[in-house]
Design a protein that fits this description.
A five-stranded antiparallel beta sheet has the order 3-4-5-6-7, covered by helices on one side. It has a two-stranded antiparallel ribbon with strand order 1-2. The protein is α+β, with helices and mostly antiparallel strands and 95 residues long. The chain has two helices and seven strands.
């Protein structure tokens, strides 16, 4: 992984082949996974994944495709989703 700063002062990550998980102070999470020619986004709390077409800008819901999540998602991102699901499940059971 290469880390740099662009001309606008934004953090620039290159050659990131492991998922990155961003989290707000409220616990909202967004996962980003770099693919060969595109990116995938994951919303762990919802168990949703999306792929971006970099030529058209269209975002595709990967749940409309009949491929199990374990085959397509990056292993690190999959693990993060599993951990999040366990956390949410435990939290709901305490209510």
């Amino acid at each position: 992984m290469n880390i740099d700063v662009d001309e606008r002062g934004l953090i620039l990550l290159k050659e990131v082949y492991v998922g990155v998980l961003l989290e707000t102070s409220e616990g909202n999470q967004l996962g980003v996974v770099m693919r060969d020619d595109t990116f995938e986004l994951a919303v762990p709390k919802l168990g949703r994944r999306y792929r971006i077409n970099m030529k058209t800008g269209q975002i595709y819901d990967l749940h409309s495709v009949s491929i199990p999540i374990t085959r397509e998602i990056d292993p690190v991102m999959y693990k993060a989703i599993q951990i999040q699901e366990r956390y949410v499940s435990k939290k709901e059971n305490k209510k």
